Amino acid sequence: MPELPEVETSVRGISSIKNKVIKSIKVNQPSLRWKVDCQKLAQFQEKKVQSVYRRAKYIVISAADSSIILHLGMTGTLRIQRNDSNFFKKHDHVEIIFKNEKLIFNDPRRFGSMHFTDDFENHFLIRNLGVEPISEKFSGEYLYSKIRRSNATIKSLLMNQNLVVGIGNIYANEILFDAKVRPKRRGKRILKKEAIKLTESSKLILNKAIKAGGTTLQDFLSPDGNKGYFKIDLKVYGRNKENCDVCKSSIKLIKQNQRATYYCPMCQR
Ligand SMILES: [Zn+2]
Questions:
Q1: Catalytic status, residue 241
Q2: Helix ranges restricted to H, the chain
Q3: Of the listed 2, 133, 183, 223, which one is catalytic?
Q4: Is residue 194 annotated as part of the catalytic site, yes or no?
Q5: Catalytic annotation on 141?
């Protein structure tokens, strides 16, 4: 599943649609994770794209007072193609058509989604989202205030989308290693200085991944059609029984909420 850095990379890859006028939107297959509401398509006609950005793992395309909210799901990809090209791929579900080119959403497994709204902030997918991890709002003070009474583990808190968005399993493991915090510690046991370090590590790890073009363990097509992503240097994830780069101890693998957790028992306390 694409994580935040992959989504950010996709957003940057389609940024050329900014300031272009939408001619029409064509839905070939409305049965995505949620059925595409085709009644709202007309309101995008002749509207100029004002911005393309990421909110959590959603790609938002805004035009006048309306927004398109897109989620790549497990296997969703975007590509830009000229209108006069005959190239068509199986699972091309939605086409946003401009004067000379179109943005195509392809998704073989159809866990992705596309919504059209004129009230973005109050949309049901958006209104309960926590803060962005790479923003000033995700400060040590903020994290500490949210976790200091919690019995949940720090790893599940970092992955709680109502608290902070877009930190998936791979990056949660790497952030906890960088901050030297054990994944199973309870929120209420985390010291304030550790909360500060956790927010710093989050920004560091996610920015590194965005710079590298995102990392994923599954095939992923970037908007320009290149297959695969550069992998960031994962310090613990997927490295069960390998030696820790820092202390040479053996990295451990445990399960937390059915998800794989990797950590170094020496470096992380
Ligand atoms: Zn270590």
A1: no
A2: 4-13, 140-147, 154-158, 169-179, 192-211
A3: 2
A4: no
A5: no
- Bridge partners for 190 per DSSP: none
Is the predicted pLDDT of residue 227 greater than 90, yes or no?
A: no
CA of 252 to the centre of ligand 1 (A): 10
**Whole-number Å distance between alpha carbons of 4 and 213:** 11
Domain boundaries, the chain: 4-122, 140-263
Burial of 133 (0-12, 13-18, 19+ CB in 10 A): buried
CB neighbours of 145 closer than 8 A, spacing ≥ 6?
A: none
pLDDT in tens, 129-144: 999 999 999 999 999 9
The pair of three-digit structure tokens given for residue 50, joined into one six-digit string:
């004002």
Residue 90: phi and psi, rounded to 5, are -60, 145
189 is catalytic: no
CA of 265 to the centre of ligand 1 (A): 7
Going from the Cα of 7 to the center of ligand 1, the distance in angstroms, rounded, reads 30
Q: Which amino acid is at 57?
A: K
Q: List pLDDT tens digits, range 45-86.
A: 999 999 999 999 999 999 988 999 999 998 898 999 999 988
Q: What is the whole-number distance in angstroms between the Cα of residue 259 and the centre of ligand 1? A: 21
CATH class of 4-122: alpha beta
Q: Note whether 3 and 213 are within 8 A (CB).
A: no
Dist CA 117 CA 129 (whole Å): 17
Question: Does CATH place domain 140-263 in 3.30.565.10?
Answer: no
Structure tokens belonging to residue 266 = 């020496």
